[in-house]
Amino acid sequence: DRFHYTLLPSFLIPSSSLLSGLEGARILLAVMILIGWAVPTCFGILGMLWMYGLLASPLQYHNNSYLLGLLCLWMSFCDNPRKSLSKTVPAWQSLILLIQASAIYLFSAIAKLSDPQWRSGQVLFAYGQDHVFPFLSSWLTMRATSFIAPSVIVGELLLGIALWNSSWRRWAIL
Fold it and tell me: Which residues contact 162 (CB under 8 A, 6 or more apart)?
């Protein structure tokens, strides 16, 4: 069917029609969250469906989709905003988001540091040459990307660290 590689046993892999139904359920759950109906429960179910999708097809993995699944699961432990009288967020919830955001920036920077093609700027140059960003291809030379790539890596490392300092956090988020 649709999956070429999976972390699940074959009997847990959905058919194409079931997969379409699961995607429809994710959309429905997202709408229910937007209108405020059973928010923590919907977040929990949405997070489980999202993680199931990643396990069923790791080829679909991206760190942002993993983050979305984790955030949905974590949000299932939060109070329903329509029923809560509190205007503040518990510290543990903020800490979880801070840890996850920092981890994404730091691990992304570490992955780029370990890749010689990224460090040299070849990856960014290839994006420009493949016309992914056609408006950039005229000035995105190998010389430019060899300067931009290390700057991106340093920027991601600094962002991962800056989020932990309350006075730097506002600038890091921008």
Answer: 168, 169, 171, 172
